[in-house]
Amino acid sequence: MTATAFLCRDDALAEGQSRGFDPWGEGHDTVLLVRRGGKVFGWADACPHHGGTPMAWRKDAYLNGDRSRIVCAAHGAQFDIESGVCTLGPCLGQSLQPVEIVITSEQDIYICREGGGDTEHD
């Protein structure tokens, strides 16, 4: 069984923007979305360098100054938005964990996970 949870409307994430979400009610953001080149990329909000340290230095602040990379505020590691691969920093060559997202025909963005969770949608 695949569980889904609503994240946001597609038009709520502008080009070059990042946002964090707490889809499973854990009390902190566990997922981040980034829109680049008209596509939405979803990643676990956890740096691979140090036991899953949250990435943002403040709410929704996941990108470097020119919005070309995802940055871990704790370590300065930089990650490619599209592949999640670390291109600079202490976890060079490691990758962010991708999360499965779905954009419905109604333009809602959901996260999916196997084995249970919150809300089912059609």
Automatic annotation (TrEMBL):
Where, if anywhere, are coiled coils annotated? none
- Where does the record place the Rieske domain? 5-91
Pfam families noted in UniProt: Rieske
State the UniProt keywords alphabetically. 2Fe-2S, Dioxygenase, Iron, Iron-sulfur, Metal-binding, Oxidoreductase
Please give the Gene Ontology molecular function terms for this protein. Answer: 2 iron, 2 sulfur cluster binding; dioxygenase activity; metal ion binding
Q: Is Oxidoreductase included in the keywords of this UniProt record?
A: yes
UniProt-recorded name of the protein:
Ferredoxin subunit of nitrite reductase or a ring-hydroxylating dioxygenase
Q: What are the top taxonomic ranks of the organism?
A: Bacteria, Pseudomonadati, Pseudomonadota, Betaproteobacteria, Burkholderiales
